[in-house]
Amino acid sequence: MRKSSSSFLALGAALALGALAVSAGTSVTVGIAKFVSHPALDDIERGIRDELSASVPGISFDLQNANADMATAAQIARKFKADRVALAIGIATPTAQALVSAIKDIPVVFSAVTDPVAAGLVSSYAAAGKNVTGTSDMTPVREQLDLLVSMKPIKRLGHVYNAGEANSAKLAELVRAYAKEKGIALVESTVANSAEVRTAVLSIADRIDGLYLGNDNTVFSAVNTVAELCLQKKIPLVTADPTSAETVPVLAATGFDYYAMGRATGRIAARILKGENPGSIPTYFPTAAAEQSLVINLDVAAKIGVTVPAATIAAAKVIIRNGAVERKAP
User: What is the pLDDT of residues 31-52, one digit of tens each?
Assistant: First the structure.
């Protein structure tokens, strides 16, 4: 008990010093580590920086990229700890796990973690009482798969993911449950790194009617390759990342606006820097319509011979048509 009390006193002192630094207008350094560079995670990083730059005076950033390597993620965590950053932010599950494992006396904020409890970051989604909190991107798997099935009858569903990512393993369970419920044969292919993605897709391409990509960081670092293969094979591809769907030729994507998620993460970080205890802040789950998006690519639909229902087009926030991006007014 005495050790636990000392830890909370140390954390409280660190937070108080952070609040004093902000109020005094002196420089405050926040470490931001992302697992890999791809459009969704890049947008989260940008949202965090924009939010903190607007709300915290004297803010500076130590930006790090693990390049999808866990050893590098652990090295970054040790660097943040040694440098005594005011607050460390981990974008995506593997990076957040590395930070939480290494840092116990500095606030840690996670972003885009599918299931922070299963990942071992917090003990509950409510205020967890430690130095960790953040935002979840528990993606709406059922809605995403319903979207795919609505555009083409699917008897054999393809799913490619990295079984080593806790978030991807969790989503794979949900995909299996959906396929079983709908009587769809599921054809899975797993990868350990982005270099394996092309081979993984080709290994199942001739045995599937459609392909689903959840928010898997390893696979999304090679999403251009996946999209091009699906175009060649005329396979409808639905993903969980509307951000990359605006520039990558996927049939459709529905999920979170990751820039908005970055802003939400930044707001949590700002509260902590101004003195709030991270242990009193519950995990944030985006639910507002403004935090989600549906992207439909009618050019891809035409190339692969898929007719998109009129209701789906009407519901889309972004439509790709004749090479142009059309955004509906909010």
Answer: 999 999 988 899 999 999 999 9
Strand ranges across the sheet with 28-34: 59-65, 28-34, 87-91, 108-113, 132-136
Q: Are residues 205 and 278 in the same domain?
A: no
User: What residues contact 33, with CB distance under 8 A and at least 6 apart?
Assistant: 64, 65, 66, 73, 76, 77, 80, 88, 89, 90, 91, 95, 98, 99
Q: Buried b vs exposed e over 217-254: b needs ≥16 C-beta within 10 Å?
A: bbbbbbbeebbebbbeeebbbbbbbbbbbbebbbbbbb
> What whole-number distance in Å separates Cα of residue 301 and Cα of residue 203?
23
CA 242 – CA 256 distance, rounded (Å):
7
DSSP letters spanning 267-278:
HHHHHHHTT--G
Q: Which amino acid is at 84?
A: R
* Residue entry with tokens 């005011």: 86
* Nearest Cα residue to 207 out of 181, 189, 193, 191: 189
Model confidence pLDDT, tens digit, residues 86-118: 999 999 999 999 999 999 999 999 999 989 998
pLDDT (tens digit, 9 = 90+) per residue, 274-324?
A: 999 999 999 999 888 788 899 999 999 999 999 999 999 999 999 999 999
Residues 31 and 67 in one domain: yes
Chain-centroid distance, C-alpha 86 = 23
Q: Same domain, yes or no, for 248 and 202?
A: yes
Is residue 82 a contact partner of residue 92, using CB atoms and an 8 Å limit? no
Q: What is the CATH number of the domain that holds 73?
A: 3.40.50.2300
Q: Are 192 and 165 within 8 A, CB to CB?
A: no
Q: 76 lies in which domain range?
A: 2-137+258-288
**Same-domain status, 160 and 127:** no
**pTM for the structure as a whole:** 0.78
Whether 6 and 125 map to the same domain: the answer is yes
Nearest residue to 69 (alpha-carbon basis) of 162, 161, 202: 162
Size (the chain), residues? 330
Look at residues 229, 202, 213, 206 and name the one whose alpha carbon lies nearest to residue 156: 206
